[in-house]
Amino acid sequence: MKRLYTNATFVTMVDDIDTADALLVGDDGRIAYIGSVEEARAMADGAEEVDLGGAAVVPGLIDPHSHFTGALQYLLYADLSECTSFAEITETLKAFAAERNIGPDGVIMGNGYDQNNLIEQRHPDKSVLNAVSEDVPVLITHVSNHMGVANDCLLKLAGITPTTPDPEGGRYGRMNGTGDLDGYAEEPAAMNPFYAVTTPRLGLDFAAMVPDMQRIYLEHGVTTCQDGATAPDMAGVLVSLAKAGLLKMDIVSYPMWGTDVMATLADNAAFDSQDYHNHFRFGGLKMFLDGSPQGLTAWMTEPYVEGPAGEKDWVAYSTMTDEDAIAFAKLAIDSNHQLLCHCNGDAAADQLLRVYEAARDASDNPEKAALRPVMIHAQTARTDQYAKMAEIGMIPSIFSSHVWYWGDAHLRNLGPVRGGRVSACGDAERAGLPFTLHTDTPVLRPNLLEAAWCAVNRITKDGAQLDEDQKITPYEALRAITYNGAYQYGEEADKGTLEVGKLADLAVLDRNPLAVDPREIRDIKVLATVKEGDVLYERPAK
Prior knowledge:
Residues 48-537 form the Amidohydrolase domain. It is an enzyme of class 3 (hydrolase). Helices cover 32% and strands 21% of the residues. By secondary structure, it is α/β, with parallel strands linked by helices.
């Protein structure tokens, strides 16, 4: 259905000053005209006219890295993000279990605790969760999703005992002097046995939950999002949702290292394409090389100020050997797929640059230079590493929200110089890179405008000003979550700017991010989200 949108400032993102007064959507869901109201009306030919009441309209925001299926955490897990002590974690979980009447056949899950915000200043142990229940498995996950804690019941059901060795690329916490397990697990290799127990007990009904999962993105103006580490069963879920016509926004999936990724793609071959089928497609492959800086598991070239339990000279570790990483990267390149790789520490970034270049050089794929590999997070990437990314065509997707949420922890853990330059968007901009900004949902809600605010202002929760040389302009930040996001996905011909012929994916805002005081960008409200001309979300009236 044709729609003519008027009475708004249309921020085209073609450059930092270009705006328009009207936008016409054709029957095909693409932009038929953008420009003056008079010319738009002359072309409208009976189109429905929508008065936007003086709003600002930007291209639909593009999430360059998150975990769409992980958004179920917001629906099924207790929220521990506001807990400030072990006691509060216990009480929150007890209340959650009682409210939902969770019995022995169920599971009690919690997400979002952060040891940096707890008065104990350490991770909880199993005793905190045993106090919740001794008969029902309990699992809580850190805000980074890189670590978690299980109670004794879950340890037993998962078959994890004091004699269980630490897996490669992960570890289990043990009590000092006894060797007994304390319930802590670090990185997916150690946590996956827990998920094997807990996931079947959740009684997941994705068809019923998917409208709420999509709303989590749509209410933030996001029209394209990612499932950034897709397991084979979740690939099947997403394909089934697409076939049933239940996906309304575009979702790009990346099967995860550690599984038979090529079998996943082969089993769903129709979706292994640059083209979407019912708003879903596979975009490439995913691997990860280290952990979380706020969790002290990001792999660094220089030690943390202080490691776990006061350990000196702690630099953490890689989750993959060079040999395995090269093999997986070459698999992606040989099969003509984009590779996404999680790297937080600069040692992990060194490894990715090293192994990707080796894999690319060993590949005979004639299209290998056009694959646009992505370094996910890039929290402590150095200036020389950004230069190397530009040289080999790699895109950094920067988790800029770290500045606000964990900037103070980074200053403590990494010191003023390294901690002060986390999320170094300024270096990425100066290197000429088409960098993107993300929120790693469900680590944080997909508030990309807040991510832009963080990159522009670089202020921590405690009010510390991080390295101002790494600030970027509001236009550069908005470009990172519109055009650059489209470029990362190879979709810049269809998305990322408001131009004739592109999809009518729109975020309707109460203010123009390029016209407000930069300190107010985070306060901008999303009034509506439009996908291919159809309104998928409208902010409720007060």
